[in-house]
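pasting for the record
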Amino acid sequence: MKDLEKVSKVSDDCTLTIVELRESYNNWKSVVWVVRIRHEAQGDILVTHGTAFSDLEKVSKVSDDCTLTIVELRESYNNWKSVVWVVRIRHEAQGDILVTHGTAFSVSSDGLILTSAHLFPKTSYELDVRRLDEANFHRASVVFQKPKWDVILLQVLDVNGCQYATLTNDGSLSVGQSLLYIGNPDQFVGSFLMDKVAFECIDHVEVPISGATCKTYIPTALSTTPRHRIMGHVWNKDIFRHSSFGTYAKNLHPLVPIIQMYGLICGEVVQVAPFSMLRGSRWDACYEFRGI
């Protein structure tokens, strides 16, 4: 697909445009309330939150904002396979040779691909990659990495003329809009999943440059509704106090912007900035693209 903005208009009987979705989202905020409850348990003061509505007659009748025909879905699937890469990493741990896999995306015609920094061990490793629509692996090398953002840039060796995707702006997304997620859930390489944006997205988000980390971040999202989601809403001091998961996440920057999709707590997520989603103790990197 050359331009994802030209998504098919074929849909169910009830369809909202992007403008209508944004208007609906803003209208709903006026009848949705955050419920905060403080209580004591085993000597500790616990705070829990929920959601309430002040006007149940305004139940949304929003259905899918866009639907592709079977033919268009197949075309989209085959086109996107040309920009999606499987990353394979071999490394030694406690005397065993381990093999891990991840997902990367082409961002230039000369073989630059983006993936997650957390995939890569601190010890020595062997790295190769293959395009999702090819059987053969290619050698690759690391050309840039930003561990605090959980992003790493690879150069695929001896390839040219790659299909690649263009990064777009978060502000082009709307709450309730359907998005495609291509990733590696539970080692099912090249899975194509679809869900909906669950929280507001904005343009012109500041790039985090301070030395802050998620392990010391105190979340405020339940006290004050944020303008957009950040990594600190998922990984923060409160989470690490009660969970053994997220060793790598402790050193991520809490202000890295994320895009939440409906489903899990941060769900199937697609975004402009690098983001890692939680699925048990696993992570997947996700990006949001305008087109191939």
